[in-house]
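User: Design a sequence. Structure:
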């Protein structure tokens, strides 16, 4: 099949759109581009000499199925999209967002397979420098090795947080706190939460940046209606508010560290659920 065949299939629809199935369409992007759209994501873009595949950040079973469907629509014999040990493949070629094939099924931009990482044998610097993707980008793409790195960074962060609490050196950073963690909108949502930004959290792990605002957010996310109970004592000068107190934190160290660990794991290690692709 050729690009002209794809355009002919598209022409069977109306107004530049051809429905193929549930929430699945061919759509005209321009004269030389046709999208294979699932919900709001063009999981494949057909051009005269190639097709480009992407998940749009949604590594789900239906996304995988739609990617295979897109290849079948163009009769591209590259093999279906599958996963083995949580790594995605197109045939035997490791998948990544932006992978391209010609209409004969040849991959045009294959990358070397992601090296297997041994957390026991590699130093922290080597883990952070693994591959040419940035750690955050690889994490957003659901990269397994990146998740392993984050898991180790979380362990390192919690160990450091424990030490700070026990030694009494955890301080309220005030104006030095991360804006994404400390600033909130009128509805009470943090700036980081509003923008769905995880880059700042990865940065905090790498730099071992300990903040009261992050601890507060973690306790709140854990379901505690009044997080200040675990990190503050009443301030007589400010009615109804608490003042950060390291001794209070020490009393609730296990609750605090458990909440922070859970917060990082939920924000960084959980992949999108089956909502859309």
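Assistant: Done.
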């Amino acid at each position: 099949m050729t690009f002209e065949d794809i355009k002919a299939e598209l022409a069977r629809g109306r107004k530049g759109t051809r429905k193929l199935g549930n929430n699945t369409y061919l759509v005209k992007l321009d004269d030389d581009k046709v999208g294979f759209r699932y919900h709001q994501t063009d999981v494949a873009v057909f051009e005269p000499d190639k097709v480009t595949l992407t998940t749009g950040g949604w590594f789900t079973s239906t996304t995988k199925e739609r990617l295979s469907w897109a290849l079948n629509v163009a009769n591209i014999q590259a093999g279906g999209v599958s996963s083995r040990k949580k790594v995605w493949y197109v045939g035997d070629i490791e998948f990544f967002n932006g992978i391209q094939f010609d209409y004969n099924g040849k991959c045009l931009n294959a990358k070397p397979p992601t090296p297997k990482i041994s957390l026991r044998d590699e130093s922290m610097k080597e883990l952070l420098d693994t591959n040419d993707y940035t750690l955050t980008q690889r994490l957003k793409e659901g990269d397994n090795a990146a998740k392993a790195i984050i898991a180790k960074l979380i362990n390192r962060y919690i160990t450091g947080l424990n030490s700070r609490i026990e030694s009494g050196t955890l301080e309220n950073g005030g104006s030095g706190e991360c804006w994404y963690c400390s600033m909130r909108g009128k509805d009470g949502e943090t700036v980081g939460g509003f923008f769905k930004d995880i880059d700042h959290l990865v940065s905090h792990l790498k730099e071992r940046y300990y903040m009261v605002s992050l601890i507060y957010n973690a306790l709140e996310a854990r379901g505690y209606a009044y997080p200040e109970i675990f990190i503050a004592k009443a301030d007589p000068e400010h009615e109804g508010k608490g003042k950060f107190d390291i001794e209070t934190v020490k009393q609730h160290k296990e609750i605090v560290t458990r909440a922070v660990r859970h917060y990082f794991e939920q924000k960084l290690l959980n992949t999108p659920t089956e909502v859309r692709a």
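The longest strand covers residues 24-30. Confidence is low (pLDDT under 50) at residues 271-277.
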